[in-house]
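Key result, reporting period 2: structure in, sequence out.
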């Protein structure tokens, strides 16, 4: 199977996952303000890694809620996507957003001095 087909499936699964997660009734998932950042399907389409980020909620509770709802999510994916095999889902937290925010805060707190002003201060 071509890589372009896998990329298309990844994108479609990401879109559908966002729609499906809005319908999950579990309060651990519903209250977390989640977003699916990426989906990675194996070449044989049997397994999929779902990368998510959440603004609120406990990490362990959210993961437990997603694991409990994985049957519902998989069934809805099978209903909406026309694939021969619906992949088994694995949920992984995406830390790139928090990491990027951390780097941005470090860069904002840097004090950069102007080299021209240092030279004028040193001359009597």
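The corresponding designed sequence is given below.
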């Amino acid at each position: 199977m071509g890589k372009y087909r896998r990329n298309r499936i990844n994108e479609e699964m990401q879109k559908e996952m966002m729609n499906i997660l809005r319908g999950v009734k579990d309060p651990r998932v519903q209250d977390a303000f989640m977003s699916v950042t990426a989906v990675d399907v194996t070449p044989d389409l049997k397994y999929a890694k779902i990368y998510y980020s959440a603004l609120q909620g406990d990490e362990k509770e959210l993961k437990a809620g997603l694991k409990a709802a994985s049957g519902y999510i998989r069934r809805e994916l099978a209903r909406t996507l026309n694939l021969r095999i619906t992949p088994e889902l694995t949920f992984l937290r995406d830390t790139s957003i928090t990491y990027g925010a951390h780097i941005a805060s470090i860069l904002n707190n840097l004090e950069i001095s102007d080299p021209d002003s240092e030279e004028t201060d040193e001359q009597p």
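The mean pLDDT is 86. The longest strand covers residues 34-41. This case is discussed further under Risks and Mitigation.
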